[in-house]
Amino acid sequence: MIHHVWGLLAHPNREWRQIEHEGESVVELYAHHVLLLALVPVVCAFIGTTTFGWHFGEGRYVPLEFTTALTLAIVFYLAILGAVALVGTVLHWSARRFPGRPSRNRCITFAGYVGTPMFLSGIVALYPLVWLCSLAIVVGLCYTAYLLYVGLPAFFNITRKESMLVFSTTMAIGVLVLEALLAITVVLWGYGAMIVG
Which of 44, 125, 137, 171 has its CA 20 to 30 Å from the CA of residue 51? Predict the structure, then answer.
């Protein structure tokens, strides 16, 4: 639930144990965590692009109209929700050779919590400077990788050495998903007025 945000940032080992103990379903995860946190980058990008506009370093800002930004925000939001499910599916596939393989639903739940730092890094989109957003994404990605590294052994009930295969596979595909989302974001938020309008 949303109260896990602080725990994942401040003391992830303890928080992973509590999350594991709760046994939350995918519906509960989306209702209490992902649907809310995925709004952070979407709402911030909406406010930033309609109020200030994107700044690409050319000395001018390119704001979006309200209806264009709203349409793009909805697409961006759905893409984020889909990305969480995709990363959870990758986790489930990566764990196919382990005897205590968790269900796909539990893997999606795990992915939703792992993505918390990425959701929160979207706050910087309130003032959409490309370099600042890029820096926030790198910081969010690094902490996401740390949460994945810390949480995998307990979640899959495997050793740290065994978890490295799942970690590397998930990070590789997760980075590709992130790059796709970033490309979509740049195209939608940067050139959305021309695409939608």
Answer: 137
